[in-house]
Amino acid sequence: MTMTTTPPLPAALPFWMSLGLVPLAALATAWGGWWWALLPGYAWYLTTGLDAVLGQNERNPDTGTAEAALFWHRAITLIWFPLQFLTIFGAIWYVTHRGDLSGWELAGLFFGIGIMSGSIGIVYAHELLHQRNRTERWLGDLLLASTLYSHFRSEHMLVHHAWVGTPRDAVSARYNEGFHRFFYRVLRDGPGSAWRAERNLLARAGRPVTDRRNPFWRYAVLQGAMLALALALGGWLGLVLFLWQALVAIWQLELTNYVEHYGLTRKYLGDGRYEHIKPRHSWNAAQSATNWLLINLQRHSDHHYKPDRRFPLLQTYGPDEAPQLPIGYPIMGLMALIPPLWRRQMNPRVRAWRRQFYPEVTDWGPYNRGELPMPRGAL
């Protein structure tokens, strides 16, 4: 077991590439025009180009590495909330007081900021919320509140991780389900699902839904504070711009959710029972640069297998254990926006996955349509 106590800064530096988005957002805010396009260009195309050059990283770190040795890896997630907060609200104040950006420039700028708060902020929030450290969990809550998606914490922790690949999980995209239909379904069902999960958790402890332990109180206060600040800094225009970046961030997150589990289902065992979660139930991607930007989120098979494992220690799997994406999340997400193209690329892979891992299943119709029974004991 490795017990390194000296934090290795050089090993962590590639995971700090998200910092490049902060000065790009500042330039786009100050200069207007098409400078906003640098943000999605950096997050989507630069990382994909680097992937083409660097290839895949299939090395697995020592899972026994001491937490002290991960200091510089963790640091980027700890400093991100103040950076994102200043970027969003600084931009709102600046553009509403300067007043010389056109409508399309404002829309583009806050689209780019939404890409930053979605592809980085919510990904970092996801990492932070899985930790036991109270400060980290609070930072995760603050990041989610800045995109008005606080219920994601409850839905992700109580529903998604327990019931991924079953009808109970709204963000397990079904085979042949287009992204746009999936996005509508998640927006419709997600908040209510998170509320029921928290309500039932409180009920089992003998507490009412109004109990102070219900995190929806915290969600409401934090999100209300973000909305009030946007209004105070930029008036009604500032509020609209804040809402726009939040919608873009949510769209970016759900594109990622769509890619992560598309068509992958846990085998139904009868009597409301499903098989245990395995690496095969998430798409895996080993592309180097996009894993740096997304702090190893593409090693998603291992994250579901070991949810409390910190991102630097996540393992990658070969095709004998987990299905592999042909390219990293950014381009897969863009492909998902064109359902016929997506189906041409991914449906054959899903069918191959079924033949590889579940040759005994002859009727996939109920899986495709989400018609299997709810899991026994599901929240």
Automatic annotation (TrEMBL):
GO terms for biological process: lipid metabolic process. Its main location: membrane. It holds the Pfam family FA_desaturase. The chain crosses the membrane at residues 12-28, 75-94, 106-125, 220-244, 325-342. CDD domains: Alkane-hydroxylase. InterPro entries: AlkB/XylM, FA_desaturase_dom. GO terms for cellular component: plasma membrane. Belongs to the fatty acid desaturase type 1 family. AlkB subfamily. This is Alkane 1-monooxygenase. It comes from Paracoccus zhejiangensis. The lineage of its organism: Bacteria, Pseudomonadati, Pseudomonadota, Alphaproteobacteria, Rhodobacterales.
